[in-house]
Amino acid sequence: MLQNLNLSRKFNLLLLVVFLGAIALSGLAFSRILNRDAEQAVVGKANILMQTMLAVRDYTSEQINPELAPRLETEAEFLPQTVPGYSAREVFENLRKSPEYTDFFYKEATLNPTNLRDKADTFEASIVEQFRSNANLKELSGYRQSPAGRLYYTAKPIAITKESCLRCHSTPEAAPKSQLTTYGRENGFGWQLNEIVGAQMISVPASGVIDSARRAFLLFMGIVTGAFLLVMSLLNWLLRRAVINPIKGMATVANEISLGNMDADFQQKSNDEIGKLAAAFNRMKTSLSMAMEMLGQRE
């Protein structure tokens, strides 16, 4: 089939094959780089927020709780500000009031919480159970779907490492009266020392970052395709000007000479291969003309 194509079409076909191979390889490599960078951006946001919440918890545990803990016995209502998890959640909810953080989520998902807003849903409960079944597992992360779109989550286990925590979570009899007044006697008890009771989870939106990476990829492919079309058009113009048109001219002259028109001449003034071919044709025409004259003299 290729032998039936003219030189221009053969050249364009070869160039197209090379382009498709190059664009497939470069597109694949660029796509992987964009996806990796997008995921790193999402993971970076999640890690920063996680460390911030851990700092809030530490601040509450070390500075707020010692000041407010004595009042738990005298206040009519429980003071949730003494709980590190409550402080972290409240700080994060204030952060979510900003439009750019509306779709960010923080939760200390617990299987049996005192405050039911911390109750783990089905997905969160499965994360907690993974931590409970493998004590060496220190972190889990991945993607999940939500009404807000695709979310990247990172989770760390919540373990009871201090005996002081058991005062509020061992039995109702040991808990402060204000806690029982506020939350009742049914939830948040029966915890054990070193038991994993929940998971600290940060969820950040991934759809926006991934969509930006996809747009960047499409822009890249569009630019590369446009550049290829421009280069292909320029090469075709140069091919016609420097190769195809001179060859067509020589073919026309050769055809005229074959019909007996010895006045036809090959006009090519360049010093490239086409010019040398034209000069060779002119020498051949001269030799042919001399040979015909010699034959005519002999007759």
From TrEMBL:
Subcellular localization: Membrane
InterPro entries to which the protein is assigned, alphabetical: HAMP_dom (IPR003660), HssS/ArlS-like (IPR050398), Tll0287-like_dom (IPR021796)
Entry's Gene Ontology BP terms: signal transduction
Keywords for this protein: Kinase, Membrane, Phosphoprotein, Transferase, Transmembrane, Transmembrane helix
Reaction(s) catalysed (UniProt annotation): ATP + protein L-histidine = ADP + protein N-phospho-L-histidine
GO cellular component terms given for this protein: membrane
GO molecular function, one term: protein histidine kinase activity
Membrane-spanning parts: 217-239
Record membrane topology: Multi-pass membrane protein
Pfam family, one: Tll0287-like
SMART domains, sorted: HAMP
Record bears the keyword Protein transport: no
CDD domains xrefs: HAMP
Every HAMP domain range: 241-293
The enzyme's E.C. designation: 2.7.13.3
Major place of residence: membrane
Record protein name field: histidine kinase
